[in-house]
Amino acid sequence: MSQFKDTPDTGVTRRSLLKGGAAVAGLAAGSGAITGFPTIWAQNIKNVTITHVGQSFSVIPQIGAQASKDLGFKIEMQAVDLNTQMNRLFTQPDSIDIADLSINTVPDIMKTKIGLPISTSKYKWWDKTMPLFTKGEYTDGKKAPTAGGAPIKFQYYTDGSGAKLSPTPTDWLASIPTLTNADTLGIRPDLIGRKIDSWAELLNPQFKGKAALVDEYDIGILDAAMALQASGQIKYADIGNLTKPEIDATIKKLIEYKKSGQFRAFWQNFDQSVSFMASGEVVIQSMWAPAVTALRARGIPCTFVPLKEGYRGWGITLVPLKHLTGLKLDAAMEYLNWYNSGWQGAFIARQGYYSSVPETAKTFLEPYEWDYWYEGKPAAKDIHDPFGALMEKAGNVRDGGAMTKRMGNVAVWNSRMDEQRYLIKRWNEFIAA
Fold first, then answer.
1. Would the pTM of this model clear 0.70, i.e. be above it?
2. Does residue 393 share a domain with residue 273?
3. Which of 221, 253, 322, 415 has its CB 3.0 to 4.6 Å from that of 116, i.e. a possible disulfide?
4. Are 311 and 408 in contact (CB under 8 A)?
5. 15 Cβ partners below 8 Å, 6+ apart?
6. DSSP 3-state of 267
7. What is the distance between the alpha carbons of residues 129 and 356, in angstroms, rounded to a whole number?
C-alpha cells in the first residue's frame, strides 16, 4: 500500500512545514503554537538528501541545485548510462530515492516490487498534465497511437498495491511523468547538401562510414527497424513489439551493414553524438534534442529532420522507491511536486523537450520562447539554450514545427518488447560483430 498518507489536522501539515522551510517551521513548533506535532521534522529537514538517478539528458546538476535552493533540502543528481542505471536499480534499489526512467520500464519496476504507487491526491499537477499521459489522447481529443510503449499503457496501477497496471485511468499513478518528445534523425545539412525526408537514408550507401546509431537496444532497434521498413527491406507486423524471427531478420541486416562499413560509430550518450557530429565524422545519425541544441549553440549546423514515416516518441517519468519513509518520503513527494511546477519544465524546453505540464513551464518561459518551442512560430528574438548560449537567430522556426504537429506524428513509441531478453542478446551480438 502506498505510504503517501494525509497528516492529521494539527494546524499545519508536514508539507506546509517543508514548503515554509525549516527555520520558520522550527520557530512555530518550538513556540507552542503547534501542539502534538513532532518538531524533529522541522529541525531535520535541512539534513535530508534525495538521490535522483537517471541519464544525462534529464539528470542535470542545475536542476538539482535549483530544487535544493527552493525546497531547503538537498537534491543529489547522479547521471549514469542506461545499463548502469538499470543494474543499480535492481541490485541496489536502496541507493536510489527517485529513479528517472523511460516510462516503458514501469513493468520492470512493478515486477520487482521496488516502486511506490502514488495517489493522484498527493500529486498537485495531475489535472494539468498532458492528456497524452492522463488519457492517451492529444490535446484535440484524438487518440494517440499505441504502437510500442505508448505512455498510457504504463501510467496507472489498478490500486494502491501496485501489483497490476491498469489500461484505463485510476487514482493510482505508477510514476510522475516529466517530459516527452518525438525523436528523429539528426543531420549535418551543410555536409549533406540535399533534402532528407526518410528513415531509409540512415542506410543509404551515400553515407557509408558517415552514419551512426545509438547503442541502446530498446532505442537503437527501433531506429534501425524504421530505416529497414522505410527502405522496403523488412515489413513488421508491429514495429514496436518485434517477434523473434523479426529480431533475427533485423540483426542479420544490421550486421551486414556494419561489416560493409555503413556505421562510423555506436554512441551511448548524447555527448558522444555531439562529438561525432561536430567533427564531421558523422553526417546522419540517431539523435536526441539536447545534442542538436548543443551543436547549434556552438554554431555548427545541425537539423532534426521531420521524416515522412513519422517520429519515434517517448516519455520520461520519475519513480519514487518504496524504501522511502517518514520525513524523507514527505521530502521526496515535495520534490516530485516541485519538479513539474515550472522551473524544470522551462529549463528542459530550452533543450527542445516538452514538459508533461506545459502550463507551468509556460510561466517560466518568455512569450517569444514559448512561441518558438511550443507553438512552432518564428523566433521573435534570438533563442538561447538553458546555459545561455546562442542557439537560433531571430526569425528561425523550430525543426518539425509546433508541439501538436511533432507529437501528433509519432509512428512508434519507445518500448520494452515481449522478447526483450532475446533482443538484448541479439543486439549485443550485433554490437560485438
1. yes
2. yes
3. 322
4. no
5. 7, 330, 333, 334
6. strand
7. 6
Q: Provide the pLDDT confidence category of residue 81 given band limits of 50, 70 and 90.
A: confident
Q: Are 80 and 88 within 8 A, CB to CB?
A: yes
Using N-to-C axis directions, what is the helix angle for 244-259 and 420-432, rounded to 10°?
A: 10
264 and 162 in contact (C-beta within 8 Å)? no
- Shared domain check, 280 and 414: yes
Residue 3 lies in a domain: no
Residue 56 maps to a domain = yes
374: in domain:
no
Render pLDDT for 246-274 as a digit per residue (tens, 0 to 9): 999 999 999 999 999 999 999 988 889 99
Q: Is residue 368 part of a domain?
A: no
Nearest to 341 by CA among 27, 124, 122, 134: 124
Closest alpha carbon to 174 in 215, 120, 214: 120
Do 100 and 179 contact (CB within 8 A), yes or no?
no
Same domain? For 31 and 67 the reply is yes
Same domain, 235 and 199: yes
pLDDT at residue 139 greater than cutoff 50: yes
d(CA 54, CA 120): 23
